[in-house]
Amino acid sequence: MSNTSTPPLRLAIAGLGAIGMTLARHVDKGAIAAMSLVAVAARDHSRAKQRLAAFAHPPDVLPLGALGDVADVIVECIPAAHFMEVAEPALAKGRIFMPLSAAALLSHPELVDLARQKGGRIIIPTGALIGLDAVRAAASGGIGTVKLVTRKPPAALKDAPYVAANNISLDNLSAPKLLFSGSAREAAKGFPASRKVAAAVALAGCGAGQTQVEIWADPEVTRNIQTVIVTSACADFTMTIENVPSDENPRTGKITAHSVIAALSRLTSPLVAGS
After folding, report:
1. Measured between alpha carbons, how far is 55 from 48 in angstroms, rounded to an integer?
2. Which fold has domain 132-248?
3. What pTM did the predictor assign?
């Protein structure tokens, strides 16, 4: 009996920031079996080509809307304002779409219908969180409540629209201060830097309206800390993660890029642990 080999999945990356570039380097080095990097999209095409020139297999640099024409899997890690420029064309081609701007899906539920109609898939990486598989399992078994508690150094929250709109002073805090308590949908509007995390928990669990969020400015912490608290018919659990900032962009946790790498590896690995 002759052996047949499956062609590698073709990967495209929208955005070459801290996450996109880390992902591109790993794939180019062969870190993900049966996957090849064929294209990227970046705001500055000439600079992107320079940064990729030393790669073993430099990918093409294309417009956002063209990534779905050449790739089987498209990872989105660009500013949310350009989300639909890559999401809609990719899903219209029936591709696997992996967004980091998960909050944009709350505003564009029609993308799920488009994926269903065209045979595409939307896969949201866990990102800077922990345990979305457990949240999904709880939702399947009958979820009760889901709460996300975010603690950040005060300086990381000073520019949040909610803080400015409510004239909240974060100077000289000597104790943790609760800035916000409400739904994930409301949190996404007032705290853009936290909307990806809030949206991921909401989409995995009981929705943006039912997921509760607390955001604290905490002078006692040096890292962004996310805690997910779930009650359900099958299990109650609490999970906490402290994110180490990326060397390239302190606003991004190092684990986010590696979460995408893990999610991509699941697509081609013969063995997958966890649901």
Report:
1. 12
2. Dihydrodipicolinate Reductase; domain 2 (3.30.360)
3. 0.89
> Per-domain residue ranges for the chain?
9-128+255-268, 132-248
Average pLDDT by stretches of 10, the chain with 275 residues? 69 95 96 96 95 96 98 95 96 97 90 98 89 92 94 92 94 95 92 89 92 96 95 95 81 86 94 84
Q: Are 87 and 108 in contact (CB under 8 A)?
A: yes
Distance CA 249, CA 189 (A): 23
pLDDT, tens only, 240-256: 999 888 777 767 788 89
Q: What is the pLDDT of residues 158-197, one digit of tens each?
A: 999 999 999 999 999 999 999 999 999 899 889 988 888 9
CB 257 within 8 A of CB 18: yes
Residue spans of beta strands (DSSP E) within 184-217: 212-217
DSSP single-letter state for residue 77: -
- In which element (H, E) is residue 177 found? strand 177-183
Classify strands 9-14 and 73-76 as parallel, antiparallel or unpaired: parallel
Structure tokens given for 248:
């390239």
Is residue 138 within 8 A of residue 235, CB to CB? The reply is: yes
Residue 266: how many CA atoms within 13 Å on its side-chain side? Answer: 16
Which CATH number, 3.40.50.720, 3.40.1190.20, 3.30.450.20, 3.50.50.100, labels domain 9-128+255-268?
Answer: 3.40.50.720
